[in-house]
Amino acid sequence: MATVDTTSLADRFRPRRETLLWGALILNTELILLLAYAALGSAELLSARGARLWVYPFVWINASIWAVARTDVASASGRNRAGAAALAVGYFGVLAYTGGLVGPGHDSLGFGVALTSLPPGWAPAVTYNGMGVSLVLIPYKLVGYLTLAYLVYATVLDAAGSAVTGVLGLLSCVSCSWPVLASIATGVVGSGSGIAAAVSAGSYGLSTVVFVATVALLVWRPFGRE
């Protein structure tokens, strides 16, 4: 039975000096953006609930930046890479639909961009309706779902090169279903109802916890390569 190298695991998650420096720069930039929006934005978002909505997007974005920076993609054959890419694209599609980024179109044709009516991370948000499809592209969700798809891609390649089979590797990634289930549970299904409904509906605290937990597990990938 394979053993977990706790020293290696600790080294993997211990922040590097350059990571701390970049993290401080990113956090300071985000703080400036939030303070600027607080001074210029809508007063109703200054409530306790509004303040939480300000923070959630940056948790997603920062966790995504950290995860991508810490993840190395294993070398693999072209066939394995193509299979992993197909799974990652399919996974992103499911997340995009259940997370409300993509949905069925409505009768009216429309296109819009929200720049200052929403806090940073929610904006700049793009909405589109027409040609049988509707889009509500909220930046933090788009970044988060792309990150999860990338981590799934790396996980599949890692599993394909380990003692376990690719299928068993995917089973060890059962947490990949958490963001999908959380999106359904919070009711943020692609209804094409626009940005206002997307911001006001659902439990974003639950979605954020699920997202961070999933990212952490996909970065850890608890099965060993030989």
Describe the protein's architecture and organization.
With 226 residues, the chain is of the alpha+beta class. The chain has one domain (6-220). Helix content is 60%, strand content 8%. It contains 9 helices and 4 strands. It has helices at 6-13, 17-40, 48-70, 78-98, 139-160, 166-171, 177-185, 195-200, 204-220, and strands spanning 102-104, 110-114, 125-130, 133-137. It has a 4-stranded antiparallel beta sheet with strand order 1-4-3-2. A hairpin with a 2-residue loop joins strand 3 and strand 4 (133-137). Helix 4 runs antiparallel to helix 5 and helix 5 runs parallel beside helix 9. The longest helix has 24 residues, at 17-40.
Q: What does the secondary structure layout of this molecule look like, with pairings?
A:
Layout: H1 6-13, H2 17-40, H3 48-70, H4 78-98, E1 102-104, E2 110-114, E3 125-130, E4 133-137, H5 139-160, H6 166-171, H7 177-185, H8 195-200, H9 204-220
